[in-house]
Specification:
The structure is a single chain. The chain has 126 residues and is of the alpha+beta class. It contains four helices and four strands; from the N terminus they run E-H-E-E-E-H-H-H. Helices cover 30% and strands 26% of the residues. It has a four-stranded antiparallel β-sheet with strand order 1-4-3-2.
């Protein structure tokens, strides 16, 4: 079950305000998401958000097709409320008002994964 990380450049010195915004985040209506054709594409397993200085990172634990995660999140009202509240603290503004704009930002802000280790991939001891 893979992880993905999305970056946000934020204005430094606003960690507490940003933390308060994420503390009020309205969770998605369902962790299950579908592909463009309506077929099941995966499931969100968890998220974590981290902020330090001018960098905010959202880590997403999921199973299935990652491209569909962005489409699923773009359809969530709580995500748009969060984006509106977060906008004043962003160092780089972006258009996330439409599903297409949100999905594009989601793709472009994706960090390159260099390692993902889990207990499932740990070599067994003999």
């Amino acid at each position: 079950m893979p992880y993905a990380a999305i970056t946000y450049r934020v204005k430094p010195g606003h960690e507490d305000e940003i933390a308060a915004i994420f503390a009020e985040f309205q969770r998605v209506d369902t962790p299950d998401y579908s592909a463009g054709d309506g077929q099941s594409a995966g499931r969100l397993l968890g998220t974590g958000v981290f902020v330090k200085d001018d960098v905010l990172v959202r880590v997403i634990h999921y199973e299935g097709e990652f491209a569909a995660v962005g489409r699923h999140m773009a359809a969530q009202r709580g995500v748009h409320v969060l984006e509106e509240k977060l906008a004043p603290y962003l160092a780089e503004q972006r258009d996330t008002t439409s599903s297409e704009g949100f999905a594009a930002y989601f793709r472009n802000a994706l960090m390159r994964s260099v390692s993902q280790l889990t207990v499932d991939t740990h070599p067994t001891q003999v």
